[in-house]
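Support request from a user on the community tier.

User writes: "When I paste my structure tokens into the form, the page sometimes reloads and wipes my input. The last time it worked, I copied everything first. Here is what I submitted, just in case something in the input itself triggers the reload:"
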């Protein structure tokens, strides 16, 4: 990863002397700006990152000093034991920094209020410049994402071959997570969705909400992901326990066609709401229009499960080569069940490339 190039690109076109990334759990929500810090430096702990044209400095406390020395040995390290604002004041003053940018979307009023007490500084808020930059992935990022997808698909294949009627949703989710770690995933990307029967009609169902054993004829919806080098995968497949009914096959076929049309509409230079509307159109013209997905068609994926670009609801950013997005249409029928199929797609110079390869062309029976 070329972190230096990323940091210099961050400063381009901004009338500032430095850019501050600040992530300290004791004063702000957990991991508020951790992904941006990792993107710019490779450092994955708490603290502050002060980026200038001439150097980049890490500030952290004793909990993370050794981690910082190992992860970013090339960067100057300031020990800020319980005195982050004093240490920042000294670092800023010693370098003559006056205008300092920050990501307003990831900053709290409390922290900004403390920073504004540093004498002689003007704090310039940008919506979220680092996240904007992260939207287009480089070759190293794509390598990590492809591997995270491969691990997830291998774990899903194992689940497909071993899950059976009577298994509890909670236990299936735990087994899936354990299998991911055994295969080499750093962690699970997010709490897996393992939703069976009527629970599959809840788009973001978690097994702990209403755990139930898998039953014959159930839909079984699995949504999860792995993590490689900090980069996450996000994949959904829907199966049926045993023999599928005609209605189940029909619902699945409509969602599959919606997915195909949505992916086909992904082109560089178009806004993300174009694929969203294309995919919606398929379901709106089906017998299941009243049960169409209401969320955006998809989202960017990278160091975070949900990042830029957005894909739909009139907020779709312009798609650019290098962006990696999910496409995840669904039909959700309360009391009956739901189907979602989710692929991860790379926007290319001429169209797109589907990065997920787990079978989806027919409703697969398991158990």
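"...and here is what came back when it finally went through:"
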């Amino acid at each position: 990863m070329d972190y230096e190039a990323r940091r210099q690109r961050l400063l381009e076109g901004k009338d500032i002397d430095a850019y501050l990334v600040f992530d300290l759990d004791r004063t702000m929500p957990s991991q508020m700006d951790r992904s941006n810090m990792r993107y710019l430096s490779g450092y994955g702990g708490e603290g502050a990152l002060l980026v200038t044209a001439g150097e980049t400095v890490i500030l952290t406390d004793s909990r993370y000093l050794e981690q910082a020395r190992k992860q970013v040995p090339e960067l100057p390290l300031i020990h800020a034991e319980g005195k982050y604002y004093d240490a920042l004041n000294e670092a800023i003053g010693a370098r003559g920094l006056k205008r300092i940018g920050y990501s307003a979307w990831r900053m709290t009023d409390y922290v900004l209020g403390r920073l504004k007490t540093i004498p002689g500084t003007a704090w310039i808020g940008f919506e979220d410049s680092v996240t904007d930059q992260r939207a287009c992935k480089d070759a190293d990022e794509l390598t990590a994402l492809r591997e995270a997808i491969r691990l997830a698909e291998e774990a899903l294949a194992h689940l497909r071959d071993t899950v059976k009627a009577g298994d509890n949703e909670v236990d299936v989710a735990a087994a899936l997570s354990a299998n991911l770690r055994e295969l080499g995933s750093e962690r699970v990307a997010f709490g897996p969705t393992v939703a069976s029967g009527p629970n599959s009609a809840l788009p973001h169902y978690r097994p702990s909400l209403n755990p139930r054993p898998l039953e014959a004829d159930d839909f079984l919806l699995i949504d999860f992901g792995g993590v490689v080098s900090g980069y996450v995968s996000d994949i959904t497949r829907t199966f049926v326990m045993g023999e599928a009914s005609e209605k189940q096959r029909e619902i699945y076929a409509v969602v599959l066609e919606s997915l195909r049309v949505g992916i086909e509409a992904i082109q560089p230079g178009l806004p993300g709401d174009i694929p969203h509307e294309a995919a919606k159109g398929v379901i709106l013209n089906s017998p299941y229009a009243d049960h169409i997905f209401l969320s955006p068609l998809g989202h960017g994926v990278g160091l975070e499960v949900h990042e830029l670009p957005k894909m739909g609801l009139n907020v779709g950013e312009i798609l650019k080569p290098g962006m990696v997005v999910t496409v995840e249409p669904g039909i959700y029928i309360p009391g009956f069940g739901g189907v979602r199929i989710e692929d991860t797609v790379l926007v290319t110079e001429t169209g797109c490339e589907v990065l997920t390869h787990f079978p989806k062309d027919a409703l697969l029976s398991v158990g």
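Agent notes: The reload is a front-end session timeout and is unrelated to the input. The radius of gyration is 23 Å. The chain has ten helices and 19 strands. Escalated to web team.
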